[in-house]
Design a protein that fits this description.
By secondary structure, this protein is an alpha+beta fold. The radius of gyration is 16 Å and the shape is globular.
Length: 195
């Protein structure tokens, strides 16, 4: 899977947000320029994985808002925040891989946990400030960024897939996509996307 797969899946998610969750769609920032990504690679000292480069070329993350955590409860990080978060994790977490770059977070303004990509292999994992990071799908071949986005598409399109029922479901509240446990929703007005 490559940046084309990211483009297709991200376009589907963007269209869905525009039509169903306009507040979440409004949190998307414009794509990063080729020059900005080249600066990022220079700062990192290694090339970005093509899938991550493709994602950031479409949208340089999201603005910090209550509606921005629409990817299974996480928001796509802007380049600057991703670099700052990576620098902190590389200094503070001994297990942090040399080619790992965080690309989502629970809160864009003050990241605590999220997803990262290994820019060498293209596989993704989870990071948290107070836990050891780990790869997604360690029991099988691993999970790529296009695969992760595919899970979001499946959950939104059909209400099925690995992101549903952990307990977890996509729902809408005030024009925002919010993931929550349907059995224990604390957000007034939240309604599941799939009943």
């Amino acid at each position: 899977m490559n940046s084309h797969d990211v483009t297709e899946r991200w376009a589907w998610i963007g269209d869905w947000l525009r039509d169903r969750a306009p507040r979440s769609h409004a949190s998307l920032r414009p794509g990063a320029s080729v020059e900005r990504m080249a600066q990022t690679e220079q700062q990192l000292g290694f090339p970005l994985h093509t899938a991550l480069r493709g994602l950031w070329s479409l949208n340089d993350g999201v603005s910090d808002s209550e509606a921005s955590a629409f990817l299974n409860g996480l928001g796509p990080l802007p380049l600057d925040v991703a670099l700052e978060t990576r620098a902190f994790l590389a200094d503070e977490v001994p297990e942090w891989g040399p080619l790992w770059v965080p690309f989502t977070a629970d809160e864009v303004g003050e990241p605590w946990s999220g997803d990262f990509i290994d820019c060498g292999s293209g596989l993704t994992g989870q990071w948290c400030m107070d836990e050891e990071p780990g790869m997604h799908g360690e029991s099988c071949d691993g999970l790529t960024l296009p695969g992760l986005l595919g899970y979001v598409v499946e959950a939104l399109r059909a209400g099925t897939g690995p992101l549903i029922g952990r307990p977890n479901a996509p729902g809408l509240v005030d024009g925002a996509l919010v993931w929550a446990d349907p059995r224990d929703v604390c957000t007034p007005g939240w309604a599941p996307v799939h009943a």
